[in-house]
Write a structure and sequence with these properties.
The chain is about 65% helix and about 0% strand. The protein has about 200 residues and is mainly α.
Length: about 200
């Protein structure tokens, strides 16, 4: 008795299944770039964003720092700085004249002979005193120029001491000419102590 033959249709099915390529997993499939953002464009945008963040972090003030915005510098402060620079020069010249009497600087005392007598009465302390005044005036000139608080304090201290000295000369020594400097020195001191100027230091 003959054996039944398998149908060709059934035999052909496994062959088609074996020849069919296996589908690649989703992770292995090439990713398509998102719409509206090419790979090169996204890379450039990211680079620009990182560069901007670095620039901002470098230029921004440290956390907790006080931002001090200084308005335009008043012309009077520049004049005050020059005034104390002139005081530095004159005090230094006076100290040199006392340290080397009879030098080429001696004729300067003709402008105010009584000042030469007062300083001469101090003996060896006159030169260190004048050098101290010169250093103080120099500090006030530089401090006012750079708008430092210590410079403002030095300037106020020098003006206050000068006012007290003029007042004592007028009362003790009877030199009424020193009273002329009181309103000028008082006006200068009042200007430096005004709220608008103190806010700059």
């Amino acid at each position: 008795m003959d054996q039944p033959r398998p149908s060709r249709r059934l035999a052909a099915q496994p062959a088609h299944a074996a020849d069919a390529p296996e589908e690649a997993p989703a992770s292995a499939r090439p990713q398509r770039p998102r719409a509206g953002c090419g790979t090169k464009v996204c890379a450039r945008v990211g680079l620009i964003a990182r560069t901007d963040a670095q620039v901002v972090s470098q230029t921004a003030p440290p956390e907790g720092a006080i931002r001090h915005v200084t308005p335009d510098r008043p012309l009077a402060l520049t004049a005050f700085s020059g005034f104390f620079a002139f005081g530095t020069l004159m005090s230094g010249i006076s100290a040199a004249s006392l340290a080397w009497p009879g030098s080429a600087l001696e004729p300067m005392w003709r402008l105010k002979p009584e000042a030469r007598e007062v300083l001469g009465s101090l003996g060896p302390w006159a030169v260190p005193l004048l050098l101290t005044v010169a250093a103080t005036c120099a500090g006030a000139a530089v401090g006012l120029r750079k708008e430092r608080r210590w410079g403002h304090r030095l300037a106020v201290g020098v003006l206050a001491a000068n006012l007290v000295g003029d007042l004592l000369n007028a009362v003790v020594r009877g030199d009424r000419r020193t009273l002329v400097g009181l309103p000028i020195g008082g006006a200068m001191l009042a200007y430096l102590l005004s709220q608008r100027i103190r806010d700059r230091f």
